[in-house]
Amino acid sequence: AVHKVVTTTPKAELFGAVVEKFDMVCIASKCTTECQACSQCTYAIEQMSALAQGEPTSGLCSKLETCVQSCLESGDLKKILKCVADRCNVHCYDGDCPSCRGMAKRMFVIICQQTDMVNLSHIQYSGTCPRLFNELADDYVAARRRVAA
Predict the structure, then answer these.
(1) Per-residue pLDDT tens over the stretch 122-147
(2) Cα dihedral angle (99, 100, 103, 107), rounded to 10 degrees?
């Protein structure tokens, strides 16, 4: 599914389309030894678990955690997931939560490398996958802020 998104989505919409496919619950449930050794990954998983159980979080990602908490109040899983994608994801990339951005960057770079994203005809990026992530993440935040304003 992600490969199709990468190969068919226009560059301007690519970042949102890819990162909104990340299923953090799935990633957390399949967390490997490598993930457990990564402090960013471990923190993200602990926060997801606390939020899901209604427990307090450490508050290191206050905007993201507050937003997710308000989405959880809707109760219905489909509504919660849509709310998080529409309203909260931006806080993963806007500087509020470096651990979330770091974890997303790791996943994006792997997808970028596996799909040779920088060389795709509709992407044509002369830099590296990590630099592409940074540029697209910043553009994504700027676009989301314009929509919210």
Answers:
(1) 999 999 999 999 999 999 999 887 76
(2) -160
- CA distances for 10 relative to 3, 18, 54, 107, 142, angstroms: 13, 11, 38, 20, 17
Q: Greatest CA separation found in the chain?
A: 46
**51-to-56, 71, 84, 115, 127 alpha-carbon distances in Å:** 7, 10, 12, 33, 37
Between CA 124 and CA 129, with CA 128 as vertex, the angle to 5 degrees is: 90
| pTM of full prediction above 0.70 | yes
- 74 Cβ contact partners less than 8 Å away, ≥ 6 residues apart: 80, 83
Distance CA 140, CA 83 (A): 17
125 contacts 136 by C-beta, under 8 angstroms: no
The whole-angstrom separation of Cα 96 and Cα 100 is 9
CB count within 10 Å of CB 60 equals 14
Please state the φ and ψ torsions of residue 85, each to the nearest 5 degrees: -65, -45
